[in-house]
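Hi, here's the filled form for the chain we discussed.

Project: internal
Contact: R.S.
Residues: 817
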Amino acid sequence: MDNAQRAGNLRKPDCAEPKPHAPYPYLSFVMSPLAAAILAALNPINPALAQESQQDRSLEEIIVTATRRETSLQDVPQSITAFSTADIQRQAFQKMEDYVKALPSMNLVNVMPGRNSVIMRGISTGSAEYRTDSQVAVYLDEQPMTSISQQVDVRMIDIARIEALPGPQGTLFGSSSQSGTLRIITNKPDHAGFSAQAEALVGTTKGGEESYDLNGWINFPLIEDKLALRVVGFTAVEGGYVDNILGSDLSGTGDNAAVVEEDWNDYETNGGRVQALWTISDDWDLTASFIAQNSKTTGTWESDPTLGDYKITRFFDEYREDDWYQTSMTLTGDLGFAELSLTAADFNRDINYEWDNMMYEQWRTATYGLYYPLYDTDYTNGTIFNWQGQERYSFEARLTSQGESRLQWMAGAFYESVYDWWFYGALNPVLTSTTAWEAAQYYAYWANYYGYDVQYPLPPTDIYYENNYDKEIKQTAVFGEVTFSLTNDWDVTGGIRWFEYDREQFDIYHFPKGLPVFGAWDTGGLTTSGGVANDTVLKFSTRYHLDDERMVYFTYSEGFRLGGNNSARAASSGLIPLAYGPDTLTNYEAGLKSEWLDNRLQLNVSLFYMEWDDIQINENPDGVPWWVRGTINAGKATSEGAEINGTWYVTDNLQLEGSLFFAEPEFAETVVTSDGGVIPEGATMPNSPERKYWAAVQYTVPDFGWVPGDLWFRYDTSYQSETYNGLGNALEQDPEGIVSSWNSANFQVGLELENEWDVSLMVRNVWDDRNANWLSNLGYGNAEYFSGGLVFDDPRFNRAISFQKPRTFSLTVRKSF
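And the returned structure, exactly as it came back:
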């Protein structure tokens, strides 16, 4: 089979199988056959039948579109992990937290649902970044929907495929794919006929509330072979398990009795999509889509270790709302020599939240109130709020060659306009009765007296602090890839992308509302930055098919984030540069993709070395005015390691899967920040595990007893090594800032009936482990600067931990039509 035939092999898989590895990485090749032998001993079967089973079972081919053309995963010269509709359903993936555990090169930091920071291959400067560009691109179908530190969490209902592409993907997916790309691809309408599925789930959490999930989809042709419609809907509520317990505030002047509640942290998600496929002619198709998802959380996912697991004391009924929708339209046409694809998409997202701010307000009053009356809110309580949005428009045109020529090519153009904004600040409902308000009126008087555009007296407000932020980025790019077959088994690929960014952003700061912050009375609290820049990234790869079942490859790829300008005001301090340069990521990857034992065993191995130069860090140095904030370039880091994926059908009934990741993500030279902080050479990058594995075993009992169907059992386990929680912890080599290593396991038992009914029982977090997803720095800030409750000799409020959900049982019933 030559390369043109391989590229054109579009046989659709029934399922895209993930990969095996035993729980202990260095014993993996021993443990897999050992596990098979143990299970065989525990479940004796006819040897002749076992031999026949092994001869008949083979893995389905996995088709992916990571290269923007349909290609067998085993033929793509780069590391890819893919899960299909069948995988998603079988492994009960509901949200990002579930499937990231099974992705070897990806790490997720999620303080709570919707606040997702995604890291690939350890390339990270922290999870709480909002002013630098994302390094991992997240795509829904053909549109990017990337948002650093708050990546969208698409509900996994009727999803065709998840594709994780570690390493720079800049030539095809742009700048936000500096360290990798995550693609979520929906199932599309089908002319073949009517089909549908309905699913109901009920569950309960140890020490918490009940949960439910109702979802379904329906596909039906409206006009035979011309027009088909696919409709998806879902509603889900995950019951809480964190208790907001009674307690006094730090000053001892009040308590939280009004908001005390058991199982406080509920999460509700509703949404769906409508997609239409119009076959205009034999050569032209038009697909239109509308997708929407609304979610709301109440309470907090954090625990205060001084109060016990899953317990916190907060003084406000916290909430977070996250609503988004995407509309898109794709026109595809067969031009004979090439396929033309035109896609236009519009993505809109709104996030609103309000959280308790008692600790910071009372700490600030105690620490600074005596010397700076503007900081003295008389030990009253307030909240943090944020109203945030994103509007994203994108257009892409792409030509992809067809046929069996030795020369295959692709060319495209891309345009995107992204507008981000937020209105962030602190509220205090009794602000106008505090010492801080008297001080604010005093400063407003003098600002007005000296001719600044400040109203006096200040109009009444409950906004103690506000930041209005606007950023608009327009991106234009052209890209292309060419693959040439040197022989039937050996080919080379070259790729290039030229891009230009036009970036404008501004901030307005008031403290309180109506009074520009000190040092910015002349600008009304306004700072601006921006600029236009362009660059080019390259890609080269080569692959050689040893035979029809084994391929080796080498890939070189580049990732990038554009540079820009900081505010002139910040630059005038001498600590922040006026301009900062791009940071670049260079990736070298070699691998083997292989099938063995008559395609019953699939094993893929990748070795990589990545070099990250001129790292962009956004900072506000300690001990300087608020407006000395900007992005700097700081040093170099590297990540080198390996990824291993595999799937093995030991028999028709026994399947082993797994993946392994190990790396050394570290700063390759000493980094000195603008305020003199030092990240030593060899320090591990924050939120970057050095080891990660996932392993699963599934056993099926066909035609189980008197039941007309198959009984199956599944167990999976995952592990992640310890990480630094943030850049500040890495900078200080702070042992208190380490998120400990963790294990997590799930167990399922199910029955697949012949009448298309399926029933399954699942236990998540089988061993009820207290795994931390995230922890705050001491006092929610720098330990030396912000000591929280310790100022009051109160051990509470000095470190918060977001734990994995306790052991959860759920029963799912599914009917297919």
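Let me know if anything looks off before we file it.
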